[in-house]
Write a structure and sequence with these properties.
The chain is an alpha/beta fold. Helices cover about 40% and strands about 20% of the residues. It has four domains: about 70 residues, no CATH class; about 325 residues, Rossmann fold (3-Layer(aba) Sandwich), CATH 3.40.50.2000; about 250 residues, Rossmann fold, CATH 3.40.50; about 110 residues, Immunoglobulin-like (Sandwich), CATH 2.60.40. Helix 2 packs antiparallel against helix 6, helix 10 crosses helix 11 and helix 21 crosses helix 25. It is globular and about 95 Å long.
């Protein structure tokens, strides 16, 4: 029976406890241990039952319990202490306010499809969302003026459970927004704000909600409102649910609807950051609005807006990039593309992946790359892989010069550090590690932690991990209807003193979760060694439509059912932020086995290292930058193979060898005091080297200084004087593209003989016919270096050529090659369009090689 009218019932807090509401509705509490303990004290059982969601706990606590707390002097003092810390945090001095006071009015709009902030708010699926959550938390800590934009899903990602055969099953629990730490955004009339997005010939309405993340607001869009048709109400229903048409509708809501939401809120961002291609339609909407608001042409609006767009790509796997068929694009954008002054063919070209991609699908990553001036991958290797993946968009540019950079991911340390380790850090590092986690000198003090104290702290976390694993494993068996004997046996799985390996991530096939199981008997010998036992905790979810990933889980479960191994290897269901914290805080070694180079970054291993665990990983993603023999172990040396089966066999053998010959002996080599001193020294080396680098403060600081501030400055310059510079740049780009076919090399000469001596300088002259262009419109460069057997220049160096004047039918440019090596050398000359308002001279694609 449908309700005649609905209204919201909120818990009635006694006088003196009203401050709890302020704490509960700001996720600052989820990375403040004292605030977490305060909320847990309300009712520890309810805290666990409601997934650490204080708003839901408030609604479930009996009123007599509130009365008890109201007269509990200890609790009230605890509340006052947390409130004081919260107010100090919100109003305190920050890194951004100290270093960039002139930019305090700037706003960076950060768009992401998912946000992993807390298990209390299930609008995330995995690494992309957790990274976005850490980005907002670090921005809050540092005072960087970011606001987040996303969707509020009625059903977040699925809840995972396994059937008796080990096959993944999915269930979906609906979010009750009124018992979550989210609040409606109300207008001056007291009504919840809403926007309308034209979609498929009609308007889709979306309500606005707000999540407070410390100093940072996160605004979420929700289409589940009675004004919408049923199919439109479903747009924000499920994260990564539905078919390809549902995906395009969600991305229209995020990108175009997100821009409308900002306007509705009265927020005028200086910079727009697209966290993956899901939000790329925002770039089109910015262009359309600039055309209407400032009476610009399409090309002028592109130049005016792209300079303040930042795009981060997260996946080197082709299937991870959204591509929409032409018929869907026609359906949803047939009324949109004329507003841009583009034909449908011209509009579709924005999503093409190269010059020869005619009539294919519309790629969101290609759109984002074309309409952003600032682009990056999420590790140095991923930046290189991304340049190779998308070189078709810059077909005449050397791969290493394609304008896609990298900002290596980091973790929000305070969100993942264990209480035991935090106490040690406070004692020996001082408390600045919380606010300045990127300071190298702070982490160097890890060496001062007594080995016995560090080891005991780590042992306590392993013991806690084993206890939680036993509880969860027993619950899994109960749900499947296991008998008394199996339930009793679950109480004894794992050994709190044994070497514990952890593997937790999305179960995609390229992550090779079962690489460790490649030689079952060899692994069994490792696991069942009486004197030096090893145990493994697996956890992670496969995508609901990925049978290959599900089969990996099933294989692990079947292997673990061997009676000899039941106490040594388990699979824990329903991997989420809560379980992740226990695992990264308690394992001894984190195993990571992606098929290189398909791991963009990865951050789980960073969380392990912050807690004193060690990494054993393929040299992929972040580990390429993090690995040294003192910080952990590398599986292979970064080789890449054309034969996947051969790669699996070689790297599985390497992994077993490392475990047998290095990891297990080092762990079990104990001093007279029972402490593995060699192991602890490696723990210290790992923390001291990795923690100051692989944290989200460093990451957000890098985005701020390398992207946000320059992008804001460029955007302001383009908008000045009625977008005069944007208009001039657009005209210049049109002129260059129209004239480029007339540009040619008339003559290239040098003074080198067939043999040149080391340290000589070779002078190169290039006479170039520019057609309608002027010398100031171009930049000539020498590219030189050693030449391989195929005649290709390797490890090329680039030197600018100077313009020296008109000459005959062209213009003369001169440059020099410094012969600083021996062997076969060579050079070539290239010419590219160049303008002071281009972020990169390669942006136009106008490049000519001699």
């Amino acid at each position: 029976m449908k309700a005649f009218r609905t209204y919201t019932v909120t818990p009635k807090l006694p006088e003196g406890l009203e401050g709890l509401r302020q704490i509960a509705y700001n996720l600052w509490w989820c990375w403040n241990p004292d605030a977490i303990e305060l909320l847990r004290r309300i009712d520890r059982d309810l805290w666990e039952q409601h997934s650490h969601n204080p708003v839901a706990v408030f609604g479930a606590v009996p009123q007599d319990r509130w009365q008890q707390l109201a007269v509990d002097e200890s609790f009230r003092q605890h509340l006052e202490r947390v409130l004081a810390a919260f107010n100090d945090y919100i109003n305190g001095d920050t890194w951004f306010s100290r270093n960039y006071p002139h930019a305090k009015s700037s706003v960076i709009a950060y768009f992401s499809f998912e946000y992993g902030l807390s298990e209390a708010l299930r609008i995330y699926a995995g690494g992309l969302g957790v990274l976005a959550g850490d980005h907002l938390k670090a921005a809050s800590d540092m005072g960087v003026p970011i606001c987040g934009i996303g969707l509020l899903y009625q059903v977040g990602y699925f809840t995972q459970y396994l059937n008796a055969d080990g096959w993944q099953q999915e269930s979906y629990a609906e979010n009750d927004f009124h018992t979550l730490p989210v609040e409606p955004v109300n207008g001056s009339d007291g009504c919840q704000l809403r926007i309308s997005v034209p979609t498929d010939g009609h308007d889709v309405h979306a309500l606005l909600w707000r999540v407070n993340v410390g100093r940072v607001p996160l605004y979420l869009l929700d289409t589940n409102t009675p004004e919408n048709q049923p199919e439109d109400r479903a747009i924000s229903y499920q994260l990564y649910g539905g078919d390809v048409e549902m995906r395009i509708r969600q991305e229209i809501l995020l990108g175009i609807g997100g821009i409308q939401a900002l306007e509705c809120l009265g927020i005028e961002p200086s910079v727009y950051h697209m966290n993956e291609g899901h939000a790329a339609f925002l770039a089109l909407e910015r262009v359309r609005r600039a055309m209407v608001k400032s009476d610009l042409s399409y090309r002028e609006a592109v130049e005016a807006t792209r300079v303040s767009n930042v795009f981060t790509t997260h996946t080197p796997v082709p299937a991870g990039h959204d591509r929409f068929p032409p018929q869907l694009m026609e359906k949803y954008f047939k009324h949109y593309h004329p507003q841009l002054g583009l034909s449908m063919e011209e509009f579709m070209a924005l999503g093409r992946e190269g010059e020869h991609d005619q009539g294919g699908r519309f790629c969101m990553t290609a759109l984002a790359l074309k309409l952003s001036a600032w682009r990056n991958g999420v590790s140095k290797l991923h930046g290189h892989v991304s340049r190779m993946m998308w070189q078709s968009l810059w077909p005449r540019v050397p791969v290493d010069e394609i304008p896609i950079g990298s900002v290596t991911n980091g973790i929000h340390v305070s969100s993942f550090i264990s209480g035991d380790m935090a106490v040690l850090f406070d004692r020996y590092l001082g408390t600045d590690w919380r606010t300045e986690p990127g300071e190298m000198n702070i982490w160097q003090r890890v060496s001062s932690i007594p080995e016995a104290e560090l080891w005991r702290a780590h042992e306590r976390r392993r013991e806690r991990l084993v206890a939680v694993s036993r509880q969860r494993f027993r619950s899994q068996l109960e749900y499947r209807g296991a008998g008394p004997a199996d339930l009793a046996a679950a109480e004894e799985v794992l050994d709190p003193e044994a070497l514990t390996l952890g593997f937790g991530r999305r179960f995609a096939t390229y992550k090779r979760a079962t690489l460790l199981l490649s030689d079952p008997e060899r692994l069994k010998r490792l696991l069942t060694d009486r004197d030096r036992p090893v145990q493994i905790i697996f956890t992670g979810k496969a995508h609901p439509n990925d049978p290959g990933g599900k089969e990996l889980i099933r294989h692990i479960v079947h292997y673990a059912s061997d009676p000899e191994l039941r106490n040594r290897i388990i699979f824990l269901e329903n991997y989420d932020l809560n379980l992740a914290r226990y695992i990264v805080q308690g394992v001894d070694v984190w195993i990571n086995t992606p098929r290189r180079p398909q791991e963009a970054s990865g951050t789980s291993g960073m969380k392990v290292s912050a807690n004193g665990g060690l990494n054993c990983s393929v040299l992929d993603g972040w580990w390429v930058e993090g690995y040294t023999p003192d910080t952990g172990w590398a599986i292979g040396r970064g080789e890449e193979y054309s034969d996947a089966n051969q790669q699996d066999a070689i790297e599985a053998n390497a992994l077993y060898t490392i475990l047998e010959q290095e990891i297990v002996p080092l762990f079990y080599e104990r001093g007279a005091d029972g402490i593995p001193h060699g192991w602890v020294r490696k723990m210290k080396s790992s923390m001291g080297a990795l923690c100051p680098v692989f944290n989200s403060n460093r990451m957000v600081g890098e985005y701020t200084e390398s992207f946000y501030l320059p992008a804001a400055r460029r955007g302001n310059e383009m908008a000045a004087n009625g977008h005069a510079r944007a208009g001039a740049l657009a005209k210049w780009v049109s002129k260059v593209k129209e004239s480029w076919s007339q540009v040619r090399f008339a003559e290239v000469t040098d003074d080198a003989g067939d043999v040149t001596q080391f340290a000589d300088r070779v002078t190169v002259k290039a006479r170039i016919a520019l057609g309608a262009l002027e010398p100031g419109d171009v930049r000539a460069q020498l590219e030189y270096g050693n030449v391989d057997a195929a005649g290709e220049i390797v490890d090329a160096q680039v030197a600018r050529m100077e313009y020296v004047g008109a000459s005959g039918d062209g213009h003369m440019f001169l440059g020099t090659v410094d012969c600083q090596g021996t062997g076969r050398w060579g050079y070539t000359v290239r010419l590219m369009a160049s303008h002071s308002d281009l972020v990169s001279p390669l942006e136009t694609g106008c490049i000519l090689w001699a």
